[in-house]
Write a structure and sequence with these properties.
It is a single chain. With 426 residues, the protein is an alpha/beta fold. The strands form four sheets. The chain has an eight-stranded mixed beta sheet with strand order 3-6-2-1-9-11-12-10, with helices on both faces. A four-stranded mixed beta sheet has the order 5-4-7-8. It has a four-stranded antiparallel beta sheet with strand order 13-18-20-19, sandwiched between helices. It has helices at 16-31, 46-57, 63-87, 119-126, 154-164, 198-206, 214-223, 282-292, 323-331, 334-337, 364-373, 398-408, and strands spanning 3-8, 35-40, 92-95, 102-104, 113-116, 130-134, 137-140, 146-148, 169-174, 195-197, 227-231, 239-242, 261-265, 268-277, 300-302, 311-319, 341-345, 348-354, 379-385, 388-394. It has a domain at 3-251: Carbamate kinase (3-Layer(aba) Sandwich). The structure holds aspartic acid and magnesium ion. The site of aspartic acid has 12 residues, from loops.
Length: 426
């Protein structure tokens, strides 16, 4: 008998009726002979509502109290789910992240899991109970305070628990049938990807595909934990995220597609520092200041300086939510660095082409750029990894560019496969 960890997102637990439906699914997995551990998110938009409430009482809520508040969302859904399961005649026990042994560092709002000691979960399973765990939370090893793992962190809780319990699989349920070759809301004939390697999934998640939390995929890769991403609204197979050498779930090795999908991201902004003196150490200086402000930089481009002026422009992208902080930090540098001005643009979008097969296939970059050019969209920045090509374009051009690239690589299906059941993709 194996252990199955199932994680249900907020859209699968939006109201009482959904919770009862999910309870039935869980009981079915139990009846099929599995030990079942369930990780839950907060119901619907509860986390957003709690956050908004916090900001109504204080412009700058303390991290400790914010975490205490937000973790309540998951406690509501887990208790209700346990009740619904009991009503179906099965024993379920709910546990907070702390009770489940999720030990973290003390970084409120973005805590990292440092250990998982799921003694109470193992005990519940040995008594034949279904264990339900509040996602996205843990307890700090040092301060013993309650922490959260960052938005969308329940995926990471699920994979961490699955790894600690040596589960057979970690099933992540949302309201879409898996990972698609593009966002079905932009490309209606996007295809479900049956199997995807950890590496490609990581690139997809980091490129804006909202289906899985990046850290959860990193965790799964490190522990070789298979993830099955699927919908709680249907019985269909979803996407298996596995090692590229794995033969799960069909017993055959992965057939390597050259291109797996096109992802897009509208959450970034672009800053250009204009007229930076072309001297040793200037770039380091600028990015040190941004690092001190805890800002994660994505792409960077530095132009060749003009011989006449010996000045150059440096552009980079960053999360839009950090835009204000970055501009403030850079403004303080103006005299020290002696740049001419800084420009901020948040009407941009990023489009990424992902596929492990591009490593050994010439011409992919040219074909991708041509597909974008055909829609009349101008490319502003480019960055690549071994298995990804990303471009920054004007935000208005994103939908057309995604559609064109998806078609150019023949990724579409003849039928419409994708249904977004609850409307959120979570
Ligand atoms: N409820 C939390 C959030 O909305 C965690 C999660 O859903 O994974 O971010
Ligand atoms: Mg949520």
């Amino acid at each position: 008998m194996g252990i199955v960890v199932q994680k249900y997102g907020g859209s699968s637990l939006a109201d009482a009726a959904s919770i009862k439906r999910v309870a039935q699914r869980i009981v079915a997995a139990k009846k099929a002979g599995n030990d079942v551990v369930v990780v839950v998110s907060a119901m619907g938009d509860t986390t957003d509502e709690l956050l908004a409430l916090a900001h109504q009482v204080s412009p700058l809520p303390q991290g400790r109290e914010l975490d205490m508040l937000l973790t309540a969302g998951e406690r509501i859904s887990e208790a209700l789910l346990a009740m619904a399961i009991a009503n179906l005649g099965h024993d379920a026990r709910s546990f907070t992240g702390s009770q489940a042994g999720v030990i973290t560092d003390s970084a409120h709002g973005k805590a990292k899991i440092i250990d998982v000691t799921p003694g109470r979960i193992e005990e519940a399973l040995s008594m034949g109970h279904i264990a339900i765990v509040a996602g996205f939370q843990g307890v700090s090893q040092d301060s013993k305070d309650i922490t959260t793992l960052g938005r969308g962190g329940s995926d990471t809780t699920a994979v961490a628990l699955a790894s600690a319990l040596h589960a057979d699989v970690c099933e992540i349920y949302s309201d879409v049938d898996g990972i698609f070759t593009a966002d079905p809301r932009i490309v209606p004939n996007a295809r479900r990807i049956p199997r995807l390697s950890y590496e490609e999934t990581l690139e997809m998640a980091a490129s804006g595909a909202k289906i899985l939390h990046v850290r959860c995929v990193e965790y799964a890769r490190r522990n070789q934990m298979p993830i099955h991403v699927r919908s709680s609204f249907s019985q269909q197979q979803g996407t298996w995220v596995v090692d590229s050498t794995s033969t799960e779930p069909e017993g055959e090795p992965m057939e390597q597609a050259i291109i797996s999908g096109v992802a897009h991201d509208r959450s970034e902004a672009k800053i250009t520092v204009v007229g930076v003196p072309d001297k040793v150490g200037e770039a380091a200086h600028i990015f040190e200041v941004l690092a001190e402000a805890q800002i994660n930089i994505d792409m960077v481009v530095q132009n060749v300086s003009s011989a006449a002026t010996a000045l150059t422009d440096i552009s980079f992208t960053l999360p839009r939510t950090d835009g204000q902080t970055a501009m403030t930090a850079l403004a303080k540098l103006k005299d020290e660095v002696g740049y001419e001005q800084i420009q901020y643009d948040d009407r941009i979008g990023k489009i990424s082409l992902i596929g492990a097969g591009m490593r050994s296939q010439p011409g992919i970059t040219a074909k991708f750029f041509k597909a974008i050019a055909d829609t009349g969209v101008n490319i502003e920045m480019i960055s690549t990894s071994e298995i990804r090509i990303s471009v920054i374009v004007n935000g208005d051009g994103v939908d057309d560019a995604v559609t064109s690239a998806h078609a150019a690589f023949g990724l579409g299906s003849d039928e419409v496969e994708a249904v977004v059941y609850g409307g959120t993709g979570r």
